[in-house]
Design brief:
Thiol Ester Dehydrase, Chain A, 4 helices, about 140 residues, alpha+beta, about 45% strand, single chain
């Protein structure tokens, strides 16, 4: 799984938003993100776009965990409660793994464990490998 961690070091938005991969296994990921002032909307809650970005990054980590490049073809999110402070945790689980298509559910919780949002996503699994992408980066 070290190659997956190296691959995601190239995700500059996740880095800018201080997201951290906490757990990684085949078809599973846990990512945290501290609430920061730059993430807040006009109601002083975490912006929906920031929540979607957290869920999307966790979705990407889980869906690429098998070593093949996976790209999103569909994602939708439902918001249940505002996130106001602390550290948010996104947990992705695989619901379907096919040769070309895979499905995931990502739950975002706050520090108390309350469900903030849930995202469902589908990826297309390309033939390219994560290892080939990382090797190409190393060569440059």
């Amino acid at each position: 799984m070290d190659i997956i961690h190296e691959y995601f070091q190239g995700d500059r938005l996740a880095a800018a938003m201080n997201m951290k991969i906490e757990e990684l296994a085949a078809g599973h990921a846990v990512v945290t993100m501290p609430v920061a002032d730059m993430l807040m909307n006009g109601l002083d809650a975490v912006h929906g776009g920031a929540l979607f970005s957290l869920a999307d990054f966790c979705f990407a980590v889980a869906s690429n965990s098998h070593g093949r490049v996976a790209v999103a073809v569909n994602a939708s999110i439902s918001f249940f409660r505002p996130a106001l402070s602390g550290v948010l945790t996104a947990t992705a689980r695989e619901t379907h793994l096919g040769a070309r298509i895979a499905g995931y559910v990502v739950d975002i919780t706050d520090e108390s464990g309350a469900l903030v949002a849930t995202m469902q996503g589908v990826v297309y699994r390309k033939r390219d490998t994560i290892e080939s992408i990382v090797e190409a980066r190393r060569a440059n």
